Amino acid sequence: MKAYELQISGMSCNHCVMHVTNALQVIDGVEVENVEIGKARVWFDDDKLKKDVAEKIEEAGYKLVSIE
Q1: Cα gap 29→53, rounded to integer Å
Q2: How far apart are CA 57 and CA 20, in angstroms?
Q3: Tell me, what's the pLDDT at 48?
Q4: CA distances from 24 to 27, 41, 52 (A)
Q5: pLDDT digits 0-9 by tens, 2-48
Q6: Structure pTM?
Q7: Widest CA span of the chain, in angstroms?
Q8: What is the DSSP string of 25-59?
Q9: Which residue in 68, 56, 48, 65 sits closest to 21, CA to CA?
Q10: What pLDDT score does 13 carry?
Q11: Are 36 and 17 in contact (CB under 8 A)?
Q12: Number of Cα atoms under 13 Å in the Cβ half of residue 24
């Protein structure tokens, strides 16, 4: 598995952290290491999951700025 650092805009509190954490945890093949205000660290193998990650973050009400 490869680690990815996500930059996420629109997060301002621990409630936001919870929403993003929950959104990412439902994606098969993605392991959530840590979520903080404005960023997250996740692990996954398949680059196709980048689209799923972006969609789930958007559905939670936030915007994925970058995946590195």
Answers
A1: 11
A2: 6
A3: 85
A4: 6, 10, 9
A5: 999 999 999 999 999 999 999 999 999 999 999 999 999 999 998 88
A6: 0.92
A7: 30
A8: HTSTT-EEEEEETTEEEEEES-TTHHHHHHHHHHH
A9: 56
A10: 96
A11: yes
A12: 29
